[in-house]
Amino acid sequence: MDFSFIQKVAVYPFGNLSQDKNASLRVQSVFLMELLRQEGLRVIEPGTVRKAAQDLRLPAAGELTPDQLMALGQAIGADGVFQGTVEDYGLERQSSSKTFFLTASFTFSETVTGMTIWRSQVNNSGDSLFRKLFGGGSASLFDVTREAVNDAQKTLF
Amino acid sequence: MGVGLLCAGPASGQVYGSARPGGQANVALCLYLSASEPVAEWPAAARRQQAWQVLAHHLEQSGWRPLPLDQVLLGQQKHRARHADYLPVELLDDLRERNGVSYLLVGTLFLQERRIDLAWRLVDTASARVMAVGIDGLGLEPVMDLGPEAEDRWLQGMGALARNWRPDPVPTAAGGAEPLALVPVTTLGFHPLVRALAGQALAMGVVEQPGITVLDPGVLAAFLKDRDIRPEMICAPAGRLIRERFGARRLLLAEMIPDHQPTSRGMAARSAALPGGQGQGRGLDFTFSLRLVDLDSYSVLAGGLENHDGEIQSGWFGVVKDRSLPDILIEMAGKLLAEINQTAKETHR
Fold first, then answer.
1. Average pLDDT, integer, range B85-90
2. Does B287 touch chain A (CB under 8 A)?
3. For B252, which residue in chain A has the nearest alpha carbon?
């Protein structure tokens, strides 16, 4: 995707549909750090985004409407906004083994039009064929999260 | 390790609060106490006074001139400085102008059943910059109850802690032209000890880097709180205030998020992990992240993320790796600062 016209982006607080109350914060933190590795993008400090959302009376987390996206973009000077929802996150037990997993979706919207121009859904678990064959426990929740976020961002950059 | 993005301005060589090196200096020792169960049952005021006297005596022997406790308490009460993360700049001004104090030594003593930890910062009262920072701790022998035996053990522990305590200014702490503003670590659902230790570990990592001066996080936190600005919502206008008042152009924000797992190791494991004298890092899963923010553009210049898995880890021959929480946090903070410097990219100023 050609991002040459987008220079300044924001990450809006992620929504959370999972049982874990910290899941969205954790996934968002990983998402932001991976985003910082991308060349040529300026990421607005999340505190600025939260403050603007509060001032504009936007929902604390989750999906925004096109009008809300445009208002937010104008308030913080962002060309685009990343949003995300953690759909499922945690630990799955099967007999004696345990596996961490994450299902999440991410979007990117332009703030000039409020249109969504990228969407990705990822599902990742700490289980793998290698682990099944040669033993070893699940990858950690952190590794599962980072891999999922990387998979999603690879489809964008 | 290079200083990279952390250092905004050139080193000026200007030395603040230079009274101490080579001579005596007036210091105000401001001590706070945080105790976990069952130690909390001990009378806090008496405990604090005892600890203050032990530490002040050690300071005197090391060549400092500590301000008497009643005058320190007067200043604390007047400016409502109730904990180490709330130090109004007016308190520093008062100490310097009225009492001739060059340094404020602010410490929090964490009493646990089998451990004492002292997290401390030496702050220059003229510039509000951190001149030295550290965590000193030791394990205590277990006793059966909290009677006289525990009293003796505690006082002996304090004496041992004080003997190894070296709160001297770090020469490099006065080197940078513009201070780096360090916001107290934002944590979710952690014991206050973890939060304080994380902030302390981070400050230690930054102060040790050459050419960087750090604005005291307690002074910055008081400045923000007095203006009703929450650390997790520091926006462009708040950044402008910080820049104008303290001359800082970069801000370092840190977050600690627990890996909450509702089915197995959750809150119970986390809080239970703290009181033990050993293995405080066990059962404590969390992510520690840093963001370096440019206060001109208010964009994130660089970031780092580290994860700690609290599972018990075995090394060679099944030897269990058992490290204290301060050690874990200091290592993580060091890695994060290195990551920030490594992933330094073009700034947009």
1. 92
2. yes
3. A45
